[in-house]
Amino acid sequence: MGYIEYHVADKIATITLNRPEAANAQNMQLLDELDAAFTRGASDEDVAVIVLRAEGKHFSAGHDLKSGTPAPEKITLDWIYAAEARRYLEYSLRWRNIPKPTIAAVQGRCIAGGLLLCWPCDLIIAAEDALFSDPVVTMGIGGVEYHGHTWELGARKAKEILFTGRPLTAEEAEKVGMVNRVVARADLDAEARALAAQIAEMPSFGLRQAKRAVNQTLDVQGFYAAIQSVFDVHQTGHGNALSVGGYPILVRLEEMKTKIK
Predict the structure, then answer these.
(1) How many CB atoms are closer than 10 A to CB 71?
(2) How many CB atoms lie within 10 A of CB 150?
(3) What is the pTM of this model?
(4) What CATH number does residue 81 fall under?
(5) Separation CA 83–CA 207 (nearest Å)
(6) What is the pLDDT of residues 35-68, one digit of tens each?
(7) Which of 114, 123, 175 is nearest to 146 (CA)?
(8) Sheet architecture: strand order including 102-106
(9) Beta-bridge mates of residue 51
(10) Which candidate, 257, 256, 250, places its Cα nearest to that of 79?
(11) Are 249 and 140 in contact (CB under 8 A)?
(12) Coiled-coil intervals in this record (predicted)?
């Protein structure tokens, strides 16, 4: 069973997260399929813009820590580091640097690992009901693996969201510049496609250069180095969890997700 749908029409590739029964939680198969879809869109000469969307009520409940994960007593720090470096850090950085404009259309909950899907996109359109959150500080870890919080929210808002674990509304996200625009839930797909269609008419070389210019400016300011270094710091949280016996973080995260309807 596949968890990703891919469709191309009018120079727009639409990638759909299609695991609504699990609030589009990201197991390893979903992330591998998503990476393949982004790679396909990036290399397709008939594609000018890529739109990432999700089926169901929620964009993504984050990492699925049950599917494909060893039993808690068998988890090692080496396993965690390797798995997260590939699927949570390297994938997100690769998606960020796709040489074509990308748009994320977000509705409902976008929790922790869900941020690793929308933040690498160039533009974000959010439905009015969208809620963005990273509650992993409550489990003893300083934030998700692709730690774009400061860049996306600004330092003080990033600290507020991390320190409290509360969700950021779509309206708040737009005010701080994390979201480009907020639309009615019923209009989300149409608005994302309309923006993609507008961008698709621009010269592809100019779009590529503009994206590269902005991303390189952020990298000169320290984005790439910060993402890499904070990822290593992130791993100390896992080491702490392992040191206290078992892996209670897995249990607590899954308990939180069962409350999402």
Answers:
(1) 9
(2) 18
(3) 0.91
(4) 3.90.226.10
(5) 33
(6) 999 999 999 999 999 999 999 999 999 998 776 6
(7) 114
(8) 4-9, 12-17, 49-54, 102-106, 123-127, 181-183
(9) 14, 103
(10) 250
(11) yes
(12) none
